[in-house]
Amino acid sequence: VSIIPTLAIKLYKNRNKMAEKERLTKLRNVWEKDLLGSVIPFWLKHSLDKECGGYFTCLDEDGTVLDETKYHWLQGREVWTFSRMYNDMGNKVSEGEAEKWFQAATLGVEFLDKAKREDGLMFFSTTRDGQGLHYQRKPFTISFYILAQLEYGKALQKRQESKIPNTKSPDLHFTKAETMFDRFCELIDNPELCGRPPAPKNAGKPQSQLSNVMCLAALSEEFIHKLPQKKERYMPFVLDAMARVTKHYDSERKILMETVDADTGVDHSSIATRIFNPGHSIEVAWFLLHLCRLNPSEAHTKLALNVLEGSLELGWDKENGGITYMMDILGKPFLDTTLTIHNKLWWPHCEALYACTLAYQVSKDKHWLDWLEKINEYIYEHFCDSEHGEWFGYLDKSGNIFNRCKGGNYKGCFHVPRALLFSMQVADACLEN
């Protein structure tokens, strides 16, 4: 008699797991079709500048080039994307298709150095042929230069292992990445080196920026994966990023704040310290789950899942759907009226798609699969362009397209393919188990 309830429970659990498997398989197949049949083909067809090198990113909805300016954080991102596609998916497509990805990456990586200045900094944008146009007093263009060099170096390693003729050594690209990482750390620690004026003596306490935590997390993880023999050099940056992120945690709301007091943490006394960007908070949550693979920590794993939960609950527009771009945590108005704070942008939804897939893998909790389906439904009802390919980037509060461009000075070939690729890979790992 006692065996019957036990068997019933097992059957119930097995039935639920089979249902979850079917749901995840359905999502995974949608992502693969979108990635290989729509997103990557769009950028291959419209973005490559085969005359001057690099990529066009200012593209209309049909791929028409709107402007020839080259924005170099997008140049680095696109090199990374095509290199990563080659490294991770090259053996799952035809040899000819994989070679297209590698050649696209090569076209971009040879253009990146044109943005470098004599002082080791980088222009934010250049002309089509690589002449400097605009310089930002921020180091983030450098971070994507580093990611590009690492991933492309890995692609060259893969070609060497396959004994493909005329393959160059990856060492130069790894050296470039390491040299620029040293420079990047200097700029993070001393923003005055970027050309910013010294902080006034009465400016208050030093602050910590979530963007710096994000970059340290992403770069240190990539260095360890690409140069495992140098793990000891880069593990301190992993530990530093894991320590810094806790200062940004608003335990009441279970979110990460953009700017906090570097010593005491969350402080809502100013406009800067009240900004909550759900997309960044969600992105750092999955970065943190990645870092926990390198430095296992139950506390940080729990923190990451709490941040993801809190960010989705607070960031999700319960009336219109979708993730709100930005908000003042106390509901006060932004002084910058040009910010589209209530609108829905493509990239926070990309981050949420992958973060929920990863959270499902880590926790095995169906709750994250429910969120995943909810986010996926919103994406494919509002962002995707079935006619021309790729995703639109900018929706209004109600979910209507208000800018039909597929790329510009901020949107390029990065967030969408990364989210689709990473989500598909994690889904495959879940389904195998």
Can you tell me the residue ranges where pLDDT is under 50 for at least 5 consecutive residues? none
Number of helices: 12
Question: What does the average pLDDT come to?
Answer: 94
Structural class: mainly alpha
Portion of residues in helices?
A: 55-70%
**Separation of termini?**
32 Å
Instruction: Give the radius of gyration.
Output: 22 Å
Q: What general outline do the C-alpha atoms trace?
A: globular
Order of helices and strands: HEEEHHEEHHEHHEEEEHHEEHHEEH
Query: What's the total count of β strands?
Result: 14
Strand order of the largest sheet: 3-4-5
Topology (elements, then pairings):
Elements: H1 3-46, E1 58-59, E2 65-67, E3 70-71, H2 72-89, H3 95-112, E4 125-126, E5 132-134, H4 140-161, H5 171-189, E6 207-209, H6 210-226, H7 231-247, E7 249-250, E8 255-256, E9 259-261, E10 275-276, H8 278-294, H9 298-315, E11 327-328, E12 344-345, H10 346-363, H11 366-382, E13 394-395, E14 401-403, H12 415-432
Antiparallel strand pairs: 1-2, 3-4, 4-5, 6-9, 7-8, 10-11, 12-13, 13-14
Helix pairs in contact: 1-11, 1-12, 2-3, 2-4, 3-4, 4-5, 4-6, 6-7, 6-8, 7-8, 8-9, 8-10, 10-11, 10-12
Q: What features would you describe in this structure?
A:
- This protein has 433 residues and is mainly α.
- The chain has 12 helices and 14 strands.
- The chain has helices at residues 3-46, 72-89, 95-112, 140-161, 171-189, 210-226, 231-247, 278-294, 298-315, 346-363, 366-382, 415-432, and strands spanning 58-59, 65-67, 70-71, 125-126, 132-134, 207-209, 249-250, 255-256, 259-261, 275-276, 327-328, 344-345, 394-395, 401-403.
- The protein has a 3-stranded antiparallel beta sheet. A 3-stranded antiparallel beta sheet has the order 12-13-14. The chain has a two-stranded antiparallel ribbon with strand order 1-2.
- Strand 4 and strand 5 (132-134) form a beta hairpin.
- Helix 6 (210-226) packs parallel to helix 8 (278-294) and helix 10 (346-363) packs antiparallel against helix 11 (366-382).
- The protein is globular, with a radius of gyration of 22 Å.
- The model has no long low-confidence stretch (mean pLDDT 94).
